[in-house]
Amino acid sequence: MQTYNIHPLQELKSWQKEMQRKPSFTNRLAKKLQTKMNSLLPEKVHKAITVAIKQMVRVVLFGAGITTSKPNTEDSLEIKEKAVLERIKMYRTTAAAEGGITGAGGILLGLADFPLLVGIKLKLLFDIAALYGFDTKDYKERIFILYIMQLAFSSQEERRNVYLKMENWKEHAQQLPDDINQYDWRTFQQEYRDYIDLAKMAQLIPIIGAPVGIVVNYRLIKKLGKTAMNAYRMRLL
Question: Where are the domains of the chain?
């Protein structure tokens, strides 16, 4: 094993333990409260939100016009990860600036932050996949990207479920449906929304919206970048 690979492997093992950790009492309590709040929403509202997020993500993730970089299959892991870290840094800055602008613009611009940030996150994941050497023209690689999103922005219980699918990706990929409409969009949107709702709500408040938007977006991209790095390390190492 190359000397550089030792540190990523140690980080990967630590991350894998974190992903498989059982939900704590606080995690379970927060999940119960969120589930209770969701149950108060009419079913037609859930369906409307599910459709909206499904279409938003599908346009970016499976749109015909999306640009995909050529997969880097030649460089060492060390060179790949230096490039990945630089890309994450660039997207953190972009997302923080976007969060500050929309946060300063009141409720209307604050609401616009949601689809803009989703687009930034997905574009980052496309870039990271290519830098690690995976071809995102492959439909199943795009599903893997969707799983990374779920892994980064879900409750601990759901995170464990998603992780187990990704841990044995080759076997799981063979069982994936060809029709993306069969994907569990309801769980995806609900977990994603529950995870970021509280922080994003503060972004809509006048005066503090801008600094909140900067900090929250910065941290969300940082978390997504770390999750993506370890998800691809799991397949390479």
Answer: 3-236
